[in-house]
């Protein structure tokens, strides 16, 4: 039997014992689909590592129970045993955000949660990430230009900037910053009114109103070269409830439009099974293809998404997007000439 199956079964037993007042070995065997002998071994293993499982006899029948408040440290957290354990082993998912400025705080929080568990419990739970993992997406790293301009910025420096932006956002204080623009490849000073910080696609962004331009703009926190929070206050205007709601990426401000993309049959099932954008609808073709209709911004993120499917995707509308994708494909072909 795979080791993962044993870990999952024992975790299931813990959950069942906590949600039920008491269970017999026969009942646990039925719920998990194994023999009573296997359940006895599981209970012994869980007891050995420190989980507070015990048995009591009611009306001549032996029941098994999980002590809900067996540890003072667990009481102090306010979590149930199952909640605390789930948070602890699911840290593998949170570690996918390892590049974000709050990683140190997250690590500290998980260490405190771990302190409420016995070493044996932690050893048991450390096996659970083997069956639940997360792969981090692409994340930004400091470029050589950034390092020179900012004195070889460290992750601690980025954390400080993020903390300053959070503070300015909460207190509605204007910020002055030096920012290296990716589009113009130059540094510029901005006065901004920060509305919200958003973590998306492996990077941290600040959504801010720029008085100079009279509009909301998005800035990558990692490209901020210098930042100071002023004493000047601002009255925030109404910001969108969801950042980048109309974009397939992290672009803001471009109005959405109706976009139709046809996907060939070899990729149709993969496309159909995923939610690429909340606005999407799908229509199946007689040849096994599928056509997605989305109401999204025509921005670089959309074009990159379409081009990522290669010859298996074909834009049907709008005409300007068709022309843009054809142009990108021609430029790509020419680069191989």
3D structure, described in words:
39% of the residues lie in helices and 25% in strands. A hairpin with a 2-residue loop joins strand 1 (53-58) and strand 2 (61-66). The strands form three sheets. Strands 6-5-4-3-7 form a five-stranded antiparallel beta sheet. Strands 9-10-8-11 form a four-stranded antiparallel beta sheet. The chain is an alpha+beta fold and 337 residues long. The protein has three domains: 1-134, Arc Repressor Mutant, subunit A, CATH 1.10.10.10; 144-233, SH3 type barrels (Roll), CATH 2.30.30; 256-335, Alpha-Beta Plaits, CATH 3.30.70. It is flat.
Strand order, biggest sheet? 6-5-4-3-7
- Which oligomerization state do the chains in this entry correspond to? single chain
The poorly predicted ranges are 142-154
Q: Give, in order, the helices and strands.
A: HHHEEHHHHHHHEEEEEEHEEHEH
Say how many strands there are. 11
Number of domains: 3
Number of helical stretches of at least 4 residues? 13
Spatial shape: flat
The largest pleated sheet is described as: 5 strands, antiparallel
What is the CATH T-level topology of the largest domain? Arc Repressor Mutant, subunit A
Mean pLDDT: 81
Question: What would CATH call the class of the largest domain?
Answer: Mainly Alpha
Q: What percent of the residues sit in helical stretches (DSSP H or I)? A: 25-40%
Q: Examine the secondary-structure arrangement and name the CATH architecture of the largest domain.
A: Orthogonal Bundle
Query: How large is the share of residues in beta strands?
Result: 25-35%
In terms of structural class, how would the helical and strand content be classed?
Answer: alpha+beta
Report the end-to-end length measured between terminal Cα atoms.
55 Å
Radius of gyration: 27 Å
